[in-house]
Amino acid sequence: MKEAFIYKEDVDPFYKNLKKDYKVYRVKKKGPHYVFGEALDFWDPGEEYIPTILPPKKYLQPQEEPLFCMSLAAKPSLKPKIEAQPQIIFGVRPCDITAISQMDKVFADTNVDPYYKARRENTIIVGIDCLRPCDKDCFCSSVGSLDVKEGFDLLLTDIGEGYFVTVVTPKGEKLLKDFSTAREPSKEEKEWFLARREQRKKEYPYVFKTELANLPLLFTANWDHPVWKEMGDICLACGRCNLVCPTCYCFDTFDVMAPNLKEGERRRQWDGCLLNEFAVIAGGTNFRPQKSQRVRHRLNRKFNYQMTKYGQSHCVGCGRCYRACLVHIHPVEIANRLAEGK
Ligand code: SF4
Ligand code: SF4
Known about the structure:
Blueprint: E1 3-7, H1 11-21, E2 23-30, E3 33-37, E4 64-71, E5 77-80, E6 87-92, H2 94-106, H3 114-121, E7 123-128, E8 154-158, E9 162-167, H4 170-179, H5 187-200, H6 215-221, H7 226-234, H8 240-244, E10 251-257, E11 263-270, H9 291-310, H10 320-324, H11 331-340
Parallel strand pairs: 2-6, 6-7, 7-8
Antiparallel strand pairs: 1-9, 2-3, 4-5, 4-11, 8-9, 10-11
One iron/sulfur cluster binds at residues 244-247, 302, 315-321, 331.
């Protein structure tokens, strides 16, 4: 079954059945914000939704995790410590699905990351489609991350009485078969799905003042543009933009030793290129000491370096960095300053 239909009232039993065999996470409300977490019942925030504070990457690359245990006893040893359990992330939106498919490539590149790989192989992604922009700060469609084709197992699109389900992996197909009452969609349901997908196009205006494909060259050509100093002058170097971004994946490692200094663990935790110490190397040299250099680096990672390497914008347009930034630094505004030569 490559497509299916499930009535809205049947999603909660589906969700609860999944919880019998898997750890299941979904979007929850937390004060005025949304977060991913565990919950007893299914709930879809629908059109109210705005991106969660942290993206679902926290289940694939946790904020902090052990890498290996070490023993310095008579016979020194190192033992990898890979923690991965079967999990389902339910209700992932297209921007975050795109980010996950990008992380799948990044962590499987020249050096496969066994920690990410183990978690990813144990993870099933059930997406929920967006039919309108979450708020004025998201721009997923402009960076090509709204119409997702990979990075998920099932994608639910609200078509009124129920969800049209796009099935892309055998894992997703088996999940539907074993845990849900989904059935083949009717011709009308398929038509309604296609019509809603078509309708949504006009809801998402294109936000850049140049074609998306021009961004890498534009960023290269504007290495010395005054916008970098202006942004560097106001940036607080707090790193919030890094931490909330679904495509920022840098980490730092450190050792934690037991009091006897004979045993310990090497761990890693998220790091951020906007933080002052990020580019400090042995000997104490900081090769990106100015905030203007760090803002420029981060934006070049999204719209230039990674985009050139993978052929796809590595900003997925979720708007999280802008919402989190206390001085309102917006990636689109920077790109448009460069495009307009202002
Ligand atoms: S750079 Fe900002 S808008 Fe783009 S993916 Fe990261 S957090 Fe989202
Ligand atoms: S969130 Fe804003 S102020 Fe903080 S480091 Fe990022 S760009 Fe600078």
